[in-house]
Design a protein that fits this description.
The structure holds 2 protein chains of 2 kinds.
Chain A (H helix, E strand, L loop, with lengths): L3 H4 L4 H35 L15 H11 L10 H19 L16 H9 L1 H12 L3 H32 L4 H10 L17 H14 L11 H4 L9 H26 L15 H26 L5 H29 L1
Chain B lengths: L10 H17 L12 H4 L19 E4 L9 H5 L5 E10 L9 E12 L8 H5 L5 E4 L13 E2 L1 H6 L24
Antiparallel strand pairs in B: 1-4, 2-3, 3-5
The chains are: A mainly alpha, B alpha+beta.
Chain lengths: 345, 184
Amino acid sequence: MSGALTAIELAYWQQTVLRTVGVLVAVLLPAGTLVYVFLFKMMSFMQSRLGPMEAGPYGSMQLLAEVGKWIQKEDIVPWRADRRLFALAPYIIVLSVFMTYVVVPFGPDAWFTNLDVGVFWVLAVSSISVIGILIAGWASANKYSLLGGLRAAGQLIAYELPMVLAVVGVVIQAGTLNMQGIVVAQAEGEIFGISAIGNPFILTQLIGFFIFLIAMQAELTQTPFDMPIAESELVSGYMTEYSGMRFLLFFIAEFASAGAFAAVAATLFLGGWALPGVDLDADYMNVLGPLVLLVKVLFVSFLVFWVRFTYPRFREDQLQQLAWKVLIPLSLVNILATMVLKVAF
Amino acid sequence: MAKLPAPKTPGLVKGLGVTLKTMTKTMFPARGIKTLIPAPSVGAATVQYPHEKETPTARSRGVIALKEENCTSCMLCGRSCPDWCIYIEAHKDTAPPRRPGGKPRSVNKLDRFDIDYALCMYCGICVEVCPFDALFWSPEYEYSELRIADLLHDKERLGEWMQAVPDFEPYEAGSEQKARKVPR
């Protein structure tokens, strides 16, 4: 950071504390916003009802009330469960979400780390949650949990592939794996010689964007891809035996990862924190950038939750067919076309 | 050449349209100049129950009222109740003669007539089966209790519900049936 802020020399541990608090805020704030705006309000409006109205103005404190309720609840561990793994699983999932946020840039200097392989990092750490889910399913000693965990593993691995392949197109276009570099490439790029709005990759990578959205929906196990927690068949899948604080961790992870993936999608396809026609290196972008990103995150998650509240659940074989027979070939064609056009122009 | 049928909107898109339309209708119910002012509490199909209440329709099955004087303790209601939630106890009593000089009549006097609303499934068979116009439906519905035992309404409580029984609707014109009257 430039100006007065750079004058303050921080020790390494002070920086670490600041960054940790920053990541906590960056994860929990959007997650809470998503829960209130989409889960509580948008879903209710789509069903012609009001949703929570009692806690706080327009029910805005409802989430705090629910968190308070969960914290009070008894922490139940099944008798035959593998206690250590059972306790560990939610933390692994939450950890993977937190690590995803680490490489998302919020402004020209506002980032937690600026890895050269940012995109690779995101895709790598986001799939750690599969391990957590499998552990949760296995350690619960419950047939529903186990089935849910297995389904989740099959689904998350199947959709990891189209997601990676959809991102490859963006990486080819930007010529870098660095998230900050991708934002800059979009802001400074031009489409057919017109540079007024830069080149948000949604315009040239529309197919990639849609594949990414579908794969993201599946990665988040949101309806129509919620077979792992299909409540009519599996009670609550791998979360069946979790209660109280541990269930809260699953809940946070679900919505925080929705926010994380939406932030990644916004960075890769919608131009990240940059606005067209705004100086990229300006100091004020460090304040404005996070807000711009938040708006884009809300837009992407609106799409995700809109789909979630509209469609019924897929069947397991339909889910796998969609991934292997449609999305993966389509994204391979997309990569091929991007490569050819990249070389041609 | 035969005219081709118009291409159908894919169901996936249609579904998204339905949810989006419901959402905007709920959020922005007003028309004209006020369209852009969100007013979800007007647009929603539901009401916020303890603050605002919907009036139930006159024939809704809220609670069963008892007209004690009409009851002959015939037990038809208790025997037809599918989940045995009606408790009747009575004893034989003598009533004064109808006409002067007549013989005193024997009647059944109710000691106990309870309906356990914790068990009642609101089928209404007791009301249908009562031959002496002693049981009626009332649309009152706010009688929840903190203790489940308090849901057992005795004959005094059931008698109070009589005030809330609405009049029967008149039959349609030309009907040969005589309209029933609620004994007040």
